[in-house]
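Reply to dn_fold:

You asked what the input looked like. This is it:
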Amino acid sequence: MLTTQTLNALTSLIDSAIEQVEQLCRILEKEQQALLSEDQTALEQLVEQKFLTSQSLDLIEMQRQNIMNSEGLDTDNESMPSFLLSNQTNTNFRPLIKSWESLMALLKESANQNQLNGILLEKQHQHVQRALKILFEQSSSPDIYDADGATSQPKYTRSVGVV
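and this is what came back:
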């Protein structure tokens, strides 16, 4: 059985994670706006912010795992719901259960937003690739890298103009 101090520590960690994921959601919303407006400067800044937020979430998760491990409990995310479910009748667990549920909902929301941003990014990538095909024609242009980092020598069929 977890002590009140351990429960409070876990709840505090989960609440900190909620704050970080809320921040991540705000960053992802800004990223979407920057993608739609094609603001490369903002995108570069947002990548750094996402990285720092991700690091902070990783640290919080390591701390949660350390607490769970020190109590002899499984540390993976999959075992957390069953652990909380088995203690749902204990009133001391209610704040932790509520925080965990909020965190899971926010993580799902951020994953959906990140997926949408990925789709927007892929659309922009396709647009740029089409523009490059038009601009470079069948010249001896350098290799172009695709999203997987593979190179290909494009086959161009249209020219923009003749000089």
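The longest helix spans residues 94-136.
Hope that clears it up.
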